[in-house]
Amino acid sequence: MERMRTFPQELVDMVIDELAGHPIHRLSPYSLISRAWVTRTQQYHFKWIYFGGLDELEMWCRKIAPDPAGVSRHTRQLVLANISTLEGFEAHMRAFTRVEDLEITGCHFLLSPSAVECFAPMGFSLVQLEINKSPTTSHIITSLLAALPQLKDFITKISK
């Protein structure tokens, strides 16, 4: 039996980086090539996550375990849109420990004080928080800011 040839991880990463730079390529199939390809393709695949409603959040929760060492660790940008509650999803939200940019749009869960607890694990990585068209209170905003010490940009947009 012939031994399979392995390539240095740096070379594998360079190939994946090049493939990711072209919009015609979808990286998911490349993660099946070998274990050496999995982490780098996941870094691109899960870098930006958009939950456009409760259904999408529920689907994520059915497929992905709430593990900070799992695929959630690759997420740098997280968008939560049109979500009424985070009840039942707290463990999943706490798994996004490396998010740098969080956008919350049209969400009513900010009225719950427990929402602050969900985002606290992002405190050491989150540098930008944007809240759009989401009802909240000054107390919750103050609590959020206190729980996110690395925050550099805080943007709110109120609709008229």
Q: Quick recap of the structure?
A:
The chain is built from six helices and five strands; from the N terminus they run ααβαβαβαβαβ.
Radius of gyration: 18 Å
Mean pLDDT: 85
What is the number of independent domains? 2
* Major sheet details: 5 strands, parallel
How would you describe this structure to a colleague?
This protein is an alpha/beta fold and 160 residues long. The chain is built from six helices and five strands. It has helices at 9-20, 35-45, 54-63, 90-94, 114-119, 138-147; strands at 48-51, 77-81, 101-105, 128-132, 153-157. It has a five-stranded parallel sheet. α1 (9-20) packs parallel to α2.
Core attributes:
alpha/beta
Task: List strands and helices in order, with pairings.
Elements: H1 9-20, H2 35-45, E1 48-51, H3 54-63, E2 77-81, H4 90-94, E3 101-105, H5 114-119, E4 128-132, H6 138-147, E5 153-157
Parallel strand pairs: 1-2, 2-3, 3-4, 4-5
Helix pairs in contact: 1-2
